[in-house]
Amino acid sequence: MRPVVWGVLGAARIATQKVVPGMKGSPLLDMRAIASRDIAKARAAAAELGLAKAYGSYEEMLGDPEIEAVYNPLPNHLHVPWTVKALEAGKHVLCEKPIALTAAEARDLVAARDRTGKLVAEAFMVRFHPQWRRTREIVWAGGIGELRSIATQFNYNNPDPANIRNKADIGGGGLYDIGCYAILTARFIFGVEPARAVSLIDRDPVMKTDRLTGALVDFGDGRQLTFSVSTQTAPSQRVQIFGTKGRVEIPVPFNPVPAMESRIIVDDCRDLYGGGARTETFAPCDQYLLQGEAFARAVRGSEKFPYPVEDAIANMRAIDALYRSAETGNWEKV
Ligand SMILES: NC(=O)c1ccc[n+]([C@@H]2O[C@H](COP(=O)([O-])OP(=O)(O)OC[C@H]3O[C@@H](n4cnc5c(N)ncnc54)[C@H](OP(=O)(O)O)[C@@H]3O)[C@@H](O)[C@H]2O)c1
Known about the structure:
By secondary structure, this protein is an alpha/beta fold. It has nine helices and 15 strands. It folds into two domains: 120 residues, NAD(P)-binding Rossmann-like Domain (Rossmann fold), CATH 3.40.50.720; 178 residues, Dihydrodipicolinate Reductase, domain 2. The protein is 34% helix and 28% strand. The structure holds NADP nicotinamide-adenine-dinucleotide phosphate. NADP nicotinamide-adenine-dinucleotide phosphate binds next to helix 1.
């Protein structure tokens, strides 16, 4: 397969530290260019990452006919506007999560995709990691009996007012930043869309972003997700999935280190001390590379990208409901 030629919109930390280094490891992905609002920053990032081209504006890179696919890691409020511009410039777009600020805004991407015929998808890399695929296989094969509930917790402690996560007016806050993973992975495991949701949000008094969000999401037929995410709590992440006959635990569900083995624990719960627990391990792998390759194969038409933009809209609908619930104090329909 001819490698897909990529350009990156913005010298974002996630791009320079994780996504581009990961994607550079694949023969299917030709990481060619990076654009920044500041040409010196673009040049420095290109030199560090070994990219052939640096641009001093996003528009200029979108005008480069060599670039076939764009990775968009801009702050959340710029996801839809720049993804639409890139699609209209004839590029395929892999856009960071959350794909938009609301489901209504995300719907603009359907029109842009249909108008341009280009591929657009939300970059939820965890769906490509073997630890999640294997977990879903176990659960769907009845390995923990009937699926009942998922408990997800994801925290970090970042009080820096200059960080995009702490700016309420550009899509900051924990629910957008990491709550989206709790919803996404529950939808991935339950295999259905949630019906309603309720939340409790504690906002930072100065930055006004949600710094602690607790939520209960009803997936119907007696199935529930409970989650807690925080931007001002000691870093920690864990997912537990409970069925009538056992549980699966993913100790590092969202940010497994590519160079390290990852693992899941499958427990038949015969006792409370792990007597029935076994560990499955997965060889080191890079979930950003795996995601990029799936996207590239879809660009070349050899397979369909498994998650169309409609999936991203469904995730946004749950985020919308949780932000609404925090205002009304009520259950909100998703
Ligand atoms: N999938 C994952 O694992 C993962 C992890 C972390 C973050 N993310 C997502 O990736 C995105 C970026 O996160 P990040 O932590 O990498 O952010 P970041 O380091 O702050 O990068 C954002 C980039 O956007 C550009 N930008 C354009 N307008 C801006 C504005 N008004 N304010 C700030 N930056 C602006 C800047 O690039 P230039 O100055 O070069 O133009 C900046 O470097 C977010 O949507 C986040 O949710 C995903």
